[in-house]
Amino acid sequence: MAIGCNPAENHPISFKWIEAAIDKGAKLIAIDPRYTRTASKADIYVSIRPGTDIAFLGGLINYALTKNLIQTEYVRDYTNASFIVSEGFGFKEGMFDHWDDREKAYDVKAWTYATDETGKALRDPTMKHGRCVFQLLKKHYSRYDIDTVAKVTGTNKFDYLRVAEAFCGTGQPGKTGTILYAMGITQSTHGVQNVRATAMLQMLLGNMGVAGGGVNALRGESNVQGSTDYGLLFHTLPGYLPSPEYKDETLEAVIARYFPKTKESKSTNWWQNGGKYMVSLLKAWWGENATAENGFCYNYLPKRNGNHSYLQIIKKMIEGGLEGLVCMGMNPAVGGPDSLRAREGLGNLKWLVTADLWETETSIFWKRPGANPKDIKTEVFMLPAAASMEKEGSISNSGRWAQWRYTATEPPGVAKSDLWILDQFHHHVKTLYKKEGGRFPDPIVKLAWNYGSGHEPDVHQVAKEINGYFTRDTTIQDKDKTLEFKAGDQVPAFAQLQDDGSTVSGCWIYCGSYTSKGNMMARRDPTDLPNGLGMYPNWAWSWPVNRRILYNRASVDKTGKPFDPKRPVITWNGSEKKWEGDVPDGGAPPVDDEKGAYPFIMVPEGVGRLFALTMKDGPFPEHYEPIESPMKNPLSKVQNNPCAEVGTNVTCDLNRFPCIGTTYRMTEHWQAGAMTRSLPWLVELVPDMFVEISRSLANEKDIKNGDRVTVVTERGSIEGFALVTFRMQPFVVDGVSIEQVGMPWHFGYAGLATGDSANVLTSGAQSPSSSIPEFKAFLCNIFKGGKGA
Amino acid sequence: MSTTRDLSNQRTFLIDLTKCTGCRGCQVACKQWNQMEAEKTSFFKGEGYQNPATLSEYTLTTIQFKDYFHEGKNEFSFYKAMCMHCNDPACVSVCPVSAFVKTPEGPVIYDTKKCIGCRFCMIACPFGIPRYQWSKALPLVVKCTGCYSRVKEGLIPACAKACPTAIKYGGRQEMIDEAKRRLTANPGRYMNRIYGLEEAGGTSVLYLSAVPFDDIGFRNVTRRPLPSRTWAALRFVPAAFITMGGSLAFISWLTHRKEKIRRDKEMKEAGHASQKGDRS
After folding, report:
1. For residue A300, which of A21, A55, A147, A224 sits 20 to 30 Å off, Cα-Cα?
2. CA nearest to B46, candidates B217, B214, B213
3. Which CATH architecture group holds B11-226?
4. Per-residue pLDDT reduced to its tens digit, A644-665
C-alpha cells in the first residue's frame, strides 16, 4: 500500500523492487489525491482528499476488527491489546480526557495502564474486558464505518472496499503486506498520528517484523535517514537519544526521565541502556576532558528551553530575534511554508551563511524580485559546497543500510565538502574562544576533535569514532564469554558500550559499522541468507547491529516457530539454543522459554502499543480536519487537532478560497530546485512552474491546457501554467463537489529555470509532536491569467 | 537483398512498457552520453509531462506520454521512442553514399563524414526516426546510434544502464524468450504482441505493452523488410534509366532526324540555305 507517497516518481530506484514484488504476484495499491505515475502501475488506485488519512486508515482498522481479519495470536501475544487501561483514559465528542484548556495540552501522563500493587500492568488475555485496549480500540474505530469514511475522504465506496478487502486480507497466515508512506501523510497537523495509524493497522494484521511487511517510510532527501540518525533534529542527540531540557539538571535526571525501568520480566526494554550511550557520546565529544568526576562534561551540553524546530527558528528570525543563520543545503526561501514572510525575515539577520552547490533563493534573497538590496543590511556569505559524488562517506537508505561511497571526482573550483567546512568552523571558532575567551568557552575549547591533521579531515576517523572504541584496556563478561579489549580497539557492538567512561561512541546505533574487521559499510558481497529473503547480510551494514528486519522476533510464535514457514526471517534452533537467519532482535530465547523475551524491545512493556502512552494528541489517532478545510468534521464536534499550532494567517473562507490546494514533488526536480533547476537536461524536461487541475475546474474557470493562471491563498499568490488533466478529479464532500489544485513546489527565482514557489501559498500550521508544517492541505482559489499572460 | 544470417545473439532491447514509469532517466542518460544540447522548452509539449515534443537533431530518444480516460479509468502510459535498429534497415538500403551500416553486434550506425544530407533515409524509415540538422549550415542526419561506442566495448547502452525498471538488453533470442515468458506468465497484463518482432522484418528493439500499441502512438508497419520493397523498385532504376532514357533519346534523335530530313528537302526545293532552325 502506497499512501501519501509516490515511489515511481520520487523514489524511482525503489520502484524496481516494487515491480519485482508485483512480478511475484504482489498487488500495488496507490492512495493519492491524484492519479500519479505510481497510480499508473497500481492494481488498485483510489483517490483521497488531502488531510483525511486517519479516516481512511481508521476505516481499515475498523474493517479488520469487525470482519475479524486480524492475526489474533499476534495481537494477543505481541501487542498491548490485552492490557487494561486505567480510568484516566476517556474519549468524548472528539476530545480525549484530561485536556488542560489553559496549557492547551493534554496531561499525557494520565493515560496509563491499570496496574497491580507492584506497578505491573494488568492484562486480560481473552481481550474481552471492557477496559482492555482491544475493546477500547474497537469502540473508538466503530465510528469509522465505510459510509462515514467515504464521506470524509471523498473516496468512492466501492473502490474503498476493494482496498479494504485486499489489504486487510494480508492478516491471513502466509500472506503479508507492507505500507509505504512519505510526506503525503506526515506533512499534516496530525502527521504523527497518521503514521501511528499505519503502525496500528500493521500490528493488527501481524505484519510488523515479518518479511514483506512493516511500515516503511520512504526517506526523501538523501541523506535524511542519516541526518535523523545523527541527531540533526532539534529534539534529539545522535542515535535518537533525547536532547536534555533545562529541567534535566544532571545526567542522572536524564536517565531517570527518559530511560525507564520495566516491571515486565520478559521485556528487553533496550532503552534502559540509554545511559551508556549518553556517556559514550559525551566521551566522543569531550574526550579525556569528560570524566566520571565531572559527570562526563554533561554540563557542557546546551540545555534546550523548548521547541526549536524549523518553524520556530524562522518565526524568531521574522520577529528579529536571530542575529545569524547558517543554511547548509537548506533553502528557507523556498522549502518552508509562507515563503514571502520567510524571505522578508531573512532581511532581519545580521549575517547569513549558505553552503550549497549553486546560488539558492536564500543566498540571493537580498536581490529577489521586488527587493531593494539597499534596504537590506544582512551580510551574506555563500560557501560553494561539494556534491555527493565529490566526497567520501556513507549514506543511509530507507532500510537503514549505511552504504559507503568513495570520491568519484574532485569538487570544482574552491567547492569544499561539508566535513571540511565544519572542520574549519570548529578550528576558527575554537581559536577565537581560546584567544578572546567569552561567557562560557569550555564546551568549545575542550571539544575532542581527532580527525587527522591533513587539509581534508579524515572521514574514516569520523566513522571510527562514530562506531566507538575503548579508552582503556577493558574486560567485559558476556554471559559465559570473557571479552578482552585493548585501549584503542573498536567496539564490536553497542552491547559492549559502557557508562563508566571506558567507551567512546559518536552514535550508538552505528556501533558495529566500523569495527576491528574494518569498514562494514563498504562491503559489497551480494550473497543472500539461506532463507533467500533478500537480506544480503554482507552487503554494507544496517543499524542496529546489521539487523535487516526490525522487530523480527514478532515473525515467530512464542515457541520460536516462524508464523510463515515459507518466509522465515528468524528461526529458533532449540537443540543448539540459537537463532538462525537475520540478526535476531535480541539474542534471548523465544517468549515461552524461561529466559525468553518479547519482540518489541524498545518499549518498556516489550509489546507493540496499539494504545500509545506518550503521544501528545491522544493514545488513538482521531480524524480531525486540516486547519484550512472545506467541510465541518463529520466524526466529532472538534474541527481540528486541539494540540496543533495554528498560526495567524489561516482561513476557512470558502467564498474566497473554494478549492483544496496540495503540493508534491516530481522525478525531474529535487526539493527546492537548487540542485536541478540549473541542469539543462532536467530543465528541458520540466522548465516551468505549473499547476494541475481537473477538466471540470478548467471549464468552470474558462482555463485551457497551457494557459497562464494565478493561484491564491491567504498567504499570497503565485503564477504558473495550467495543466488540465483527467488525473485530477474533484472530491464529493457532503454531496458538494470540491475541486483541488495540485502543484510541485520545486520552483523559485534563482537558477537557470525560474518560476513561482508553491510555498508562497502554504501555511505554518504545525503538527504538535513533530512541528512539521501542513504543506499538503490548504484552501486556495485559481484564476485565468497572470502578469505573464 | 537480405541474406539469411543468425540474429539470435544480436544485441537487442526489450522494453517492457508495463514497467516504464516515465521517469526519463533514459532520456537524460542519452543526452549525457552523447553530450547533446538541451532544447529550449516551455511548459509541456503534448500530453502529460512530455518534453521535448518529439525526436530531433538534439534528442535521440524521448518518452512519449499518453494521458487519457478510457472506459471510466485513467490511462497514463509512457512509450520510449527511439531508433528501432532494424535487422534489415531501410536507411542502410537507400543511402546513396552508404553512410549507414548495420553492425554485426546489432546497432545501426552511420558515418557523419559520408552523409550528404540528402534525407532519403528520413523518407525511407517506416518509423520516422532520422532527424535533420535544420539548425546547421551543413546539415546532416542524426539518430540514435544504439550506443555502439559502448556496445563494442562490452557495455550496455546508456539508456538501458540508467533504466531501473523497463529496459532489458541482451541477445535477440534471449530477449524474445523473455518477452514470451512474460506474455505467458501474465497474460492479463499484456497485449499479446511483441512489437518489433516482425515489424519491418524484425528489429533490435522489442516492446511489450498493457495498452493497444495503436493507442499509444506506435505505427502499424509492414512485416516485410523495407529494403525488399524499396529494392523491388530501386533495382529497376539502372535498367529503367537505360531503357527509358535510351528510348527517349532514340525517339528524340529520330524526331530530330525526321525533321532534319524534311528541312533539307525544303531547302533543296527552295534553293535557299535556312538561317534559323526550326524549333520542334
Report:
1. A224
2. B217
3. 2-Layer Sandwich (3.30)
4. 988 889 999 999 999 999 999 9
